[in-house]
Specification:
Layout: E1 3-8, H1 15-24, E2 30-36, H2 47-57, E3 64-69, H3 73-80, E4 84-89, H4 92-108, E5 113-118, H5 128-136
Parallel strand pairs: 1-2, 1-4, 2-3, 4-5
Bound molecules: adenosine-5'-diphosphate.
Length: about 160
């Protein structure tokens, strides 16, 4: 069984994340969305809230499972039997950051392959940090998040 882990903060999930996950779906038997719960990291939303929005977004997708995790991503992959890590790439900044992580993960565990999908061009500018700023400043963030959860973010 081909299982991929899509790790991230999803603070909150955006249309960019949703698009990568849905486009990767035909490539795998199962995609586990791993919600990072790093105690040293400051999130805007609790891991319960971030998880709930992911569950709502993918409620009609039986191949997608949402789990919370902490610690090393490769260790979590082993625990859930994921042979692949899925990530998205928007631009050279993502590439530099993501390729370093992928290479280090490869050195930590040679059995796990990181698979990258390029952003859909119309979603290239969507970024959780800016979405959070819009939410904090009471702007209309609804258009940047998956349709299923838009009602929580419209002004
Ligand atoms: P982190 O959890 O590292 O802060 P993010 O939540 O920003 O990461 O994103 C998780 C993954 O989703 C990363 O691989 C990132 O490149 C990808 N991603 C985020 N937004 C988009 C987008 N608009 N298009 C494609 N990939 C995206």
């Amino acid at each position: 069984m081909k299982t991929a882990l899509f790790p991230g903060s999803f603070d909150p999930i955006t249309k960019g994340h949703e698009d990568i996950i849905l486009r990767a779906l035909p490539l795998f038997d199962k995609i586990i969305v791993g919600v990072g719960t790093n105690t040293a990291k400051k999130y805007l939303f609790t891991s319960e809230q971030r998880t709930a929005w992911l569950k709502e977004t993918f409620s009609n997708q039986p191949k997608i499972e949402i789990m919370q995790y902490e610690g090393l991503t490769v260790n979590f992959c082993k625990k859930i039997n994921a042979q692949y890590i899925l990530r998205g790439l928007r631009n050279p900044i993502d590439y530099n950051y993501e390729s370093n992580i992928a290479l280090m993960n490869k050195m930590l565990d040679n059995q796990i392959e990181t698979i990258f999908l390029l952003t859909s061009p119309e979603l290239m500018a969507i970024n959780s940090t800016i979405v959070r700023d819009i939410i904090i400043n009471k702007g209309d963030a609804g258009k940047f998040v998956p349709e299923a959860i838009q009602k929580n973010f419209n002004t």
